[in-house]
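Q: I have 446 residues here and want to know how they pack in 3D. Can you give me a structure?
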Amino acid sequence: MTILFRQISTIIISFLFIGPSLAESVLFENVRVFDGVSNELSSTTNVLIDGNIIKAVSVEPLNIEVDTKIDGAGQTLMPGLIDAHWHAMLASITPIQAMGDVSYNSLVAGDEATATLLRGFTTVRDMGGPVFGLKRAIDEGLVAGPRIYPSGAMLTATSGHGDFRQLVELPRVLGGNPARMESVGGSMVVDSPDEMRVRVREQFMQGATQVKLTAGGGVSSPFSPLDVTTFVDAELRSAVEIADNWGSYVVAHAFTSDAVKRAIAAGVKCIEHGYLIDDETAKLIADEGIWLSLQPLPEALRLGFPVGSVERSKADMVFPGIDRTYRLAKKHGIKTAWGTDVLFSRALAQQQGAILADLSRWYTPAEALIMATSTNAELLKLSGERNPYPGDLGVVKDGALADLLLVNGNPLEDLSLVADPNNFTVIMKDGKIFKNTTAGTQTTKQ
């Protein structure tokens, strides 16, 4: 489907599904609630939304005049889904495009943001990319999309994961012109504690809610071996110091035990991936109360790298560790977040819900959905005063922000329901309805 056709389709959707509606109050009647924390659905319940806040969750009828009344007909009302490792600007473009026309990439990202929301993902934590403008456009209502917790540019060392320069661009001239990846805001090369302080402050200056470092090697960076620990201790501590000053936290991309241990010692609060850690390191993560943000990466992502390439070789090393790391996380009771980490593939982006459903390999449907709602929301609160959306996300309770999905079926019995957006009959974000295909909707608005 072409970008133009998708944009036209989005406009049609906004009319057919009254999205976003301008209703000031909405009443969901005759629903069963998954509240984001319980293992079971409620009995038949009624939920009142006033503005962007859940005002009442009641098993008793709510005899109140509202702008819109939706008969849920026994369907499941649940919190909007949260992806803790998303790349809003990079999910649907190729690596070559990422270094190219910024205006085109922004249009693609806006289109993908709408698709993300219509897959039921009302919030994402962005783990690297020039996403600040897209977030602003969504928050201002110019583009339909999820809430975004941005990291800004990934911070990497020379030859670290995220350093996508070619060898012909070396040597780096300190104080010289930025590389293309830096000028577009995708990643920044940092090679000293002083440079680290500057780059971290720049991300917060632009509106970052947390900052992301690449503390070890990565798969998609051809000059970044997996076994290499990227930053020295002083550089890591500099990033943590500045993040602490801003009341926020540092996220570290790391696969190996050495990279994870060094990041934790420096004060990093969340590890991304960790697929090559050992049992001892998993226990350390648990004992220190560090978050582990895991992704059940689809096999198609590994197969997307050319056979015989450096990237494919590294992927072949990493992917067997996914199952092992999930089992270690469960064994040690690690605080575990869920995300997708889709990059450079519109086809895989469309599988966002299916990647969530793949958690059934390790978790019950309730455990998986709790992780993708209230648990991920707990992680987002580490942003402290940098949190752009103060309030409770990921739960259905009085006073929480009204990000809600109405599901045709019981996802606590069948997790695969979240893999198909057609199963979401209502999608609400911030109290606004972006999709409604229910038959029993009444509105007093003209």
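Q: Anything worth noting?
A: The domain at 14-80+396-443 is CATH 2.30.40.10 (Urease, subunit C; domain 1). The chain has two domains: 14-80+396-443, 82-362.
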